[in-house]
Design brief:
The chain is of the alpha/beta class and 264 residues long. The protein has seven helices and 13 strands.
Length: 264
């Protein structure tokens, strides 16, 4: 039997979609490193070829850092998470659904949603302890957002943060002002207040202008008071000096005058 030469297909790494077999294996190894196993405290399930991670009701105090890189849905609801730090989800480039409801969140860092802001389709932050949040944290979000049942402090910063957000219409009426820069709006639905024509930013500017006016008036009053005090103090010195001159004996003044004439 004659040994035939091995076809070129098996002697060289073949190309698939422009990649050699060797390159493809390398990419597979990299992919395996990126896609971490499911965290032990969570439950993972397949969802459209990706991973849905369920970490609900596990008394978590922080957002897990060992989440699979192909996570498309992440459920962290009903835990004790108090803060969303910068870059908390930066390695989850496929993330579309994020549920952080029913936690103890008070702080949202400016870069909390770096890396996932444009890909998110649903973000649930309802039933937390959020009073305010930097508008930069939400600036690139395109997701439908739930912010209901939080103790919001209604002011200009909150109004600006919500201006560009796509709020969930089913929960938008549940966003209420627990406190407000204008006390009469505390306890009222924020959307109702804004729809009535109230602009917290205008109130903020007026308050700032009034504060500046009060400060300038205070400085002006201090300057005037100092000038008046200075003038009165010098007048008092001049008066005392004049009285001293008047109290001198006239003979002494005459003697001094004669002495001067003699010398001359």
């Amino acid at each position: 039997m004659v040994n035939k030469p091995m076809p070129a297909l098996f002697r060289k790494p073949f190309r698939v979609a422009g990649l050699t077999l060797h390159s493809g294996l390398l990419l597979m190894l990299v992919f395996v490193e990126v896609v971490l196993p499911c965290p032990k405290i969570c439950h993972c399930a397949e969802k459209n070829g990706m991973t849905a991670v369920h970490c609900s009701s596990h008394n978590l105090e922080e957002i897990p850092t060992d989440l699979p890189g192909d996570t498309v849905s992440l459920f962290l609801d009903s835990n004790r998470i108090a803060k969303i730090p910068n870059n908390a989800f930066k390695d989850l480039s496929h993330l579309q659904e994020l549920d952080l409801s029913k936690n103890s969140i008070e702080i949202i860092d400016i870069g909390a949603f770096n890396g996932v802001a444009e890909g998110l389709r649903l973000l649930d932050l309802s039933n937390n302890h959020i009073q305010s949040a930097p508008k930069e944290a939400f600036s690139k979000l395109k997701a439908k957002i739930r912010l209901s049942n939080n103790p919001w402090h209604c002011e200009c910063a909150l109004q600006e943060a919500l201006r560009e957000l796509k709020l969930d219409p089913e929960t938008v009426n549940e966003i209420s002002c627990q406190t407000s820069v204008q006390e009469e709006y505390a306890g009222k639905p924020l959307i109702q207040v804004l729809d009535s024509g109230i602009n917290f930013c205008n109130f903020h500017h007026k308050t700032t202008d009034m504060a500046m006016f009060v400060t300038m008036f205070g400085w002006f009053t201090m300057v005037i008071s100092y000038v008046v005090y200075y003038v009165r103090h010098n007048q008092e010195d001049a008066r005392r000096h004049l009285e001293y001159l008047k109290s001198l004996p006239s003979t002494q003044l005459t003697k001094d005058f004669d002495t001067v004439n003699t010398v001359l």
